[in-house]
UniProtKB/TrEMBL annotation:
This is Probable alpha-L-glutamate ligase. In the C-terminal section; belongs to the RimK family. It comes from Actibacterium naphthalenivorans. It comes from the Bacteria. The keyword Metal-binding applies. GO terms for cellular component: cytoplasm; ribosome. SUPFAM superfamilies: Acid proteases, Glutathione synthetase ATP-binding domain-like. Transmembrane segments: none annotated. Keywords: ATP-binding, Ligase, Magnesium, Manganese, Metal-binding, Nucleotide-binding, Protein biosynthesis, Ribonucleoprotein, Ribosomal protein. Signal peptide: none annotated. Pfam families: RimK (PF08443), Rimk_N (PF18030), Zn_protease (PF05618).
Length: 472
């Protein structure tokens, strides 16, 4: 035989009525295929078939059980949709099927074919090769089998199959009421750059069907599709309902970057400080009391003035007051009590000098950090309060503290705010929906890309374990 320009052999290519094949572009390194010249089109076993993506670039994702009788082994796949056409099976039934194009490898040859997707779960062969799949110089020997080299299903039990599997297109939902927010737009742009489909879902317009057998999330009159991952961007004013929606996705089994419990705990400032204390994570001394009779005691507990009075529902530095004298502290506390507002009192770390450190933790690692510096005469360094962000090198202790804080709330993505005090880093806050704009600019890190690295690692399936036979 001679070789063509692609490295494939030319000349007659012999196939029996059954052969081993691979579809490398779909992450299927070994399949048994039935060769049927009586059939015009080829078919691949697929289930959970779901179209997605924009109308001008439609895609389909589906799952395959490559080994007959092994429903515990599932390979998720995705591909561009070439067509959708009616196909009549050998028993006379007509079905409307999606058509994809992929490369097939058999022996020393690889060539493109069109394949229809259909559930062949009851069939002995996961793939049927019709006559359209064969070009010139192919000889079919109906009385022979496995004319080409045999493959093995053992490949599915190796980590190698995971390492060489193609990058699977993911369908990801961003729960956000602010579609045009910088962080939301960055997430969408980075996801689409990687070939994923990222949909922004307004959390307030979600509603839920809660039942034991088929819990669902609905949106704009329709049931939401199955997502590979959900990225919560829940605003502080919408925590209760937002976390309820996340709990529903968790019930369905969808991977959520941050879980409902962690978001709820981080938003409750009193509970958050109790969690930090339970895990022995450094923080400014904090005090809380419900009775106005305990105002003086609160002030004493945090070491006296100057001190910070902070509303429990404060965000972005709003509702945070510095009381520089004891009298000022008493006045602010009395005013907050008069408004029936819940608040806590906190030691003022003077040596921080209007600066704090924002550490962004993703997947248990600090992936970026920045120093936030307050305006002159201002103690709050929040960027929303006019503070500026700049690059910073953090210490090993600061890195470990940030990671421990995120882990304490079981958050896979968190912005951990630290103060540099004379006796080590103090955690001010753990934010479950950290912004990307300031920290990307200050650190020059592609934070959105690092988030997708973590998502892809989490939702990509691991190789199946080899099934063992029981003794006796």
């Amino acid at each position: 035989m001679t070789m063509d320009g692609t490295g494939n052999e030319t000349g007659d290519f012999r196939l029996g009525w059954e052969e081993w094949a691979a579809l490398p572009g779909l992450g299927l390194p070994a399949l048994k295929a039935k060769v049927d010249t009586g059939a015009k089109t080829s078919a691949l076993h697929a289930f959970d078939i779901e179209p997605f993506g924009p109308a001008d670039r439609p895609r389909v994702r589906f799952a395959v059980h490559p080994i007959p009788g092994r429903e515990d082994l599932t390979i998720p796949c995705s591909a561009d949709i070439v067509d959708r056409r009616e196909v009549t099976s050998s028993n006379g039934e007509t079905e409307l099927r999606y058509v994809i194009r992929c490369d097939i490898a058999m022996g020393t040859r690889t060539w493109p074919i069109e394949v229809t997707l259909t559930d062949r779960g009851s069939m002995a062969y996961r793939m049927l090769l019709g006559r359209q799949a064969f070009g010139d110089n192919v000889v079919i020997s109906p009385g022979e089998s496995f004319c080409q080299p045999r493959l093995s299903y053992d490949v599915y039990h190796s980590t190698a199959v995971r390492e060489v599997a193609p990058a699977r297109t993911l369908r990801i939902a961003v729960l956000s009421r602010e579609e045009h927010n910088f962080s939301t737009r960055r997430i969408v742009a980075e996801g689409e750059k990687r070939g994923h489909v990222v949909e922004v879902i307004d959390t307030s317009r979600c509603y839920m069907a809660i039942n034991a057998l088929a819990p669902e999330v609905h949106y704009d009159g329709q049931r939401l599709p199955r997502y590979d991952a959900v990225i919560p961007r829940i605003g502080a004013s919408f925590t209760s309902y937002g976390t309820a929606v996340i709990r529903q996705f968790e019930t369905i089994g969808t991977y959520c970057v941050n879980g409902s419990d962690g978001i709820t705990a981080s938003r409750d400032k009193l509970y958050a400080h109790q969690i930090l204390a339970r895990h022995r994570i450094g923080m400014p001394t904090t005090a809380f009391a419900a009775s106005p009779k305990d105002n003086d005691s609160l002030i004493e507990l945090v070491g006296g003035a100057p001190l910070i009075v902070k509303l429990l529902e404060s965000t972005q530095g709003k509702g945070v007051v510095l009381a520089e004298t004891r009298k000022a502290a008493q006045s602010v506390i009395s005013a907050f009590r008069g408004l029936k507002a819940s608040f806590l009192v906190q030691h003022f770390v003077k040596e921080a000098a209007g600066e704090d450190i924002r550490c962004l933790v993703i997947g248990g690692k600090v992936v970026a950090a920045m120093r936030r510096v307050a305006e002159p005469g201002e103690f709050r360094s929040n960027l929303h309060q006019g503070g500026r962000a700049e690059a910073v090198r953090i210490t090993k202790t600061e890195r470990e503290t940030a990671v421990r804080a995120a882990r304490a709330f079981r958050l896979n993505m968190a912005g951990v705010d630290l103060l540099r005090s004379d006796d080590g880093p103090k955690v001010l806050e753990v934010n479950s929906s950290p912004g990307f704009e300031g920290i990307e600019k200050a650190s020059s890190k592609n934070v959105a890309a690092l988030l997708f690295d973590e998502i892809e690692k989490r939702v990509r399936p691991a190789p199946a374990r080899r099934r063992t036979r029981s003794a006796g």
